[in-house]
Amino acid sequence: MRIEHKSKKRWPLVITIATIVIIICAGIGVYATQKFKPNDTKENTTTSSSTDTNLDPPTNEEIQTGKDIKEQKVNPSTPVQTTESLNITANNTDSNIQVRATIASSIQDGTCTITLTKGSSTVTKPSVGIQPLSGYSTCKGWDIPLSELSSGTWNIEIVAKYQSKVASGKTEVTIP
Question: What are the distances in angstroms from CA 111 to CA 7, 22, 87, 139?
Answer without folding.
Answer: 107, 81, 15, 8
